[in-house]
Design a protein that fits this description.
single chain; alpha/beta; TIM Barrel; 11 helices; 8 strands; binds erythose-4-phosphate; schiff base; EC 2.2.1.2; transferase
């Protein structure tokens, strides 16, 4: 499963990228607002840090407007992935852009039927929002499971990009079901390394090491 960082914070992206933990980045208008940065400028900077897809979202709601915005966004770098909402206008835009060889992430997916439409429109990625699904009394994992089944039934190539991932259990379940990608805030990604027994183990080893009175020679 590929990991994308769901953020527009440059320092966090750089850190995760240098650690080899991420394969791409997703942003949205709320994350751009949170970063306090200029959209075009920060997107360009992110595209220079990671080799993989960097999702940048259009804000127009009509096909022509989305195409005009996508035209500008796709010039930023080769690894820009245009994010469009899961509406009929967004799907029309998706078909046109992917037909031209541009990566598209169809976002705000909340049902398996919506995911079916995104695949039929040739989306590179479709983003089911697990956390927001859970927040509203549905099981986000049921959605991922249905999508995996349907995409496999018809050998759709659209990648399932599990989004709105809030905690380690979301990540684990996505990996079990076989989501192609998951995008999560940096804190959730680094938090996957945490385990109380790892900390306890380190503590024990270091205590015994201190008793040996030795040190490892370094240059
Ligand atoms: C995905 O691309 C979105 O940016 C994101 O995952 C939304 O997550 P949220 O529900 O935590 O805002």
């Amino acid at each position: 499963m590929k990991f994308f960082a769901d953020t527009a914070e440059i320092d966090a992206i750089r850190e995760l990228s240098e650690a080899g933990l991420i394969d791409g980045v997703t942003t949205n208008p709320s994350l751009i607002h949170k970063s306090g940065r200029d959209f075009m400028e920060v997107t360009k900077e992110i595209c220079g840090i990671v080799d993989g897809p960097v999702s940048a979202e259009v804000v127009a709601l009509d096909h022509d407007g989305m195409m005009r915005e996508a035209e500008t966004l796709r010039k930023i770098a080769d690894n820009v992935c245009i994010k469009v909402p899961l509406t009929i206008e967004g799907l029309k835009t998706c078909r046109k852009l992917t037909g031209d060889g541009t990566m598209v992430n169809v976002t705000l997916c909340f049902s398996a039927n919506q995911a079916l439409l995104a695949a039929k429109a040739g989306a590179t990625f479709v983003s089911p929002f697990i956390g927001r699904h859970d927040d509203n009394g549905f099981d986000g994992m049921d959605l991922i499971r249905d999508m995996r089944l349907i995409y496999d039934n018809y050998a759709f190539e659209t990648e399932i990009l599990a989004a709105s991932v809030r905690h380690p259990v979301h990540v684990l379940e996505c990996a079990r079901i076989g989501a192609d990608v998951m995008t999560a805030p940096p804190k959730v990604i680094t938090g996957l390394a945490n385990h109380v027994l790892t900390d306890k183990g380190i503590e024990g080893f270091l205590a015994d090491w201190a008793k040996t009175g030795q040190s490892i020679p370094t240059a």
